[in-house]
Input
Amino acid sequence: MARLFDQPHPYPGMLIVVEGIDGSGKSTQLQLLQKWLLNSKYRVFFTEWNSSALVNETIKRGKKKNLLTPTTFSVLHATDFADRLAHLIVPPLKAGMIVCADRYAYTAFARDVVRGVHPEWVRNMYGFTVRPDIAFYFKVPIEVSLKRILNARVELKFHEAGMDLGLSEDPRESFRLFQSKILEEYDRIAQEYNLTVIDATQSIRKQQQQLRDIVRERLKEYKPTPYLQKKENVYVA
Amino acid sequence: MSPKKKMFSGFGLPYIEASDIKGKLIVIEGTDGVGRTTQIEELRKWLEVKGYGVATTGWTRSPLMGKTIDEAKSGHTLNINTYNLLYAADFADRLEHEIIPALRSGCVVLADRYSYTAFARSVVRGADRQWIRKVFGFALEPDAVFYMRISIENLIPRVINSENLHKRYWEDQSGEGMDYWESGMDLHLGEDFYDSFVEYQKAILKEFDKMTTEFDFQVVDAEKSFEEINRALKQGILAVLEDEVSEEKSRRN
Output
């Protein structure tokens, strides 16, 4: 059976995803895109790659007892995503909305592989995932993202800096090494999944114009007709 | 004859070398209420008397996930993918923190259920067979899988009896085979609990039967008496442990 992730979704809504390393500016771009869509009277639904209370508690418990391995960490995030997909992504898509997602399964592919799981294994696990209509990848050199992050904040968070991987004692250096590895993975993913690459070193406005041009093109085919009849649950892997 | 090296069933755990892991991993599979747990208790005593270090491991008992699964089940509607992955996370945790360390320390590990239970339950709930097998690709291949096979006609009186039904009604609904999820109530297969249980177990048994050849299960007739089943299991386990004896001899030589 072909994985759901490998084929276009059947829902009337539209799924737009932004991806990129921390400090690539993707969230800013998605916000601006939403402003524009809302202003054009589209029905927009926003969702982000956040853990639910259920998994957060588990992860906290795991950290305390030092129980989390790369594999359990990865499966836990997939579990959480499956739950969010079912409750926060598929319903608005069935209702014909434009769903804007800040990070998506690609984030897991990049992070989990850097933490040590098998690339094909994690891709298979996310086979139940709805494929986005457009996935933007904000490509940025590591030094640029580092500067943006450090400008905005004085200190780096433990996980953000990948300190759990033991790459370096210095949070900044650890962050640089960790994000470089993630960046490598993202570049591979962008090619593999044909993500729409945006040069994130450009000005905010210029990037936003590119986004809007691409989305405008896709909106021509977009006819939001909510599902009125129950259809089979197609997002079961 | 040297015993076969340990292998992962699929993509594995890239940060662990499976072939370094010694010890014997013996799995007892079978549906809810077939009597796996009582057999395992007996086998553990028997092996310990023989001088083997024994570790037992169950299904959904991990310190990390046990509570999460309970919370998830008692909460709102649990999507099928979420359900399947919760069990995968639990299993991964037990594998890396119980099973592999016990094997490394040279124990015989008796597993009360293994990934096959997850395969049966997931497929019955609509998951793709290959997808769920690959998700559990981090599992170690057991040295032997004993499948306690029972017909639905014989399973019914074991589960649907006074003790179980009262426990389910008055207490926490989490008795073996009585649990809401584990009896497939989420699938709405029948009008009431009984119909649902029968339809669900029929489907589960069918999946187990299909897996018998796929995974080379050693079938144990679970309709026989406790002692007869126990004897059959001991015989099978002895054959697996002989491997180990010959391995030790070859090491000494």
